[in-house]
Design goal:
single chain, 123 residues, Alpha-Beta Plaits, four-stranded antiparallel beta sheet, two-stranded antiparallel sheet, 3 helices, 32% strand
Length: 123
């Protein structure tokens, strides 16, 4: 079984109503994240369907993916919670996932991390 407690990074996934992604990214940056990726989605939950002229309308969502060092997760998720108003019913959801491997963030590596990656690539 994989021990996810030793991972260096976590992915914060935040799903909010369309138009709120910028507030999520701004809050995450102020709390120490470097940025995020916004994906557009459609809600299908039990509370997600509105009707217009008796036709079901699926509300548009924005999904913000933020890859952060594990040590910063609590501070960043708290900032997102407040900025996006996630304590209000129907506003959105945020959760984290452990990341076991991450590459392409060269500027974020400590010098020792980069050396370890280079050694692993050569073997």
């Amino acid at each position: 079984m994989i021990d996810y407690t030793n991972t260096s990074y976590s992915l914060i996934v935040t799903i909010v109503n369309r138009g709120y992604a910028n507030s999520v990214i701004d809050a995450a940056r102020e709390a120490g994240a470097r940025g995020g990726t916004v994906l557009y989605a459609r809600g299908t939950g039990i509370h997600e369907t509105d009707k217009f002229m008796n036709i079901a309308i699926q509300p548009e969502k924005e999904m913000v993916l933020t890859l952060v060092r594990r040590s910063a997760v609590k501070e960043i998720t708290r900032a997102i919670l407040v900025a996006a108003g996630l304590r209000t019913k129907g506003r959105g959801i945020s959760f984290t996932l452990p990341v076991t491997e991450a590459v392409g963030m060269v500027t974020d590596f400590e010098p020792d991390d980069a050396e370890t990656l280079d050694e692993r690539d050569q073997s």
